[in-house]
From TrEMBL:
<dbReference type="InterPro" id="IPR008567">
    <property type="entry name" value="BKACE"/>
</dbReference>
<dbReference type="InterPro" id="IPR013785">
    <property type="entry name" value="Aldolase_TIM"/>
</dbReference>
<dbReference type="Pfam" id="PF05853">
    <property type="entry name" value="BKACE"/>
</dbReference>
<protein>
    <recommendedName>
        <fullName>3-keto-5-aminohexanoate cleavage enzyme</fullName>
    </recommendedName>
</protein>
<dbReference type="GO" id="GO:0043720">
    <property type="term" value="F:3-keto-5-aminohexanoate cleavage activity"/>
</dbReference>
Amino acid sequence: MIVQTCINGARSADFHPQLPLDAEAMARDGAACVAAGAAELHVHVRGLDGRESLAPAAMDRTILALRRACPGTLIGVSTGAWIENDDERTLAAIAGWSELPDYASVNLSEEAAPEVMQSLRQRGIGIEAGLASVADAERLVRLDHGGQMLRILIEISEQALDAAWEVSEGIAAVLDRAGMRRAILLHGSDATVWPFVRRAAERNWSTRVGLEDGKALPDGTTASGNAALTAAAVAIFRVGR
């Protein structure tokens, strides 16, 4: 039961003045989040042009900077299909990484998810299975990879809270029926960030917060940055315990 901080995601620079978009900024921000209570970091690596990238040069530079700034902290990355926009290029990039993340998130909604997971396993990289719908959960069950996951992400994009609850409960029900007992990390986005942090605390699941998911604090004000978001989530988890 941890708080993970997702420090940047696919957000653009105009989303927040403290959004970290290069390796050194991610390293500084990551260290501040760990100091605020983050157990892990999830990052979207950027190339020198500021755009998301899985290219070995960008990945190696970023992971090395984070390792130096946050020794002992687990670091995860996204493998979203939109990053390289080509499945073969995605697989080639993973094969070329020298500085390996501890885990990588794979969206089960993406066609090449099985191949990406296999590539990650071959490199010894843990897998977070990202489930945003009941169909994603059903696909994971069919693939029978539940026993090989580091954890399962229930990640909700619906902004209407009733609809978001319905999707998350549907995903959890599929996993329960299939007997998948992997660790679960539950998170929302924007309007649903804090309701899902509280729900995760109630269920003894992990959660995540950060500028990838939203910039508002629980009281609705804009956070100064990722460290403030992290501290707010950690405070909720401490009360929940």
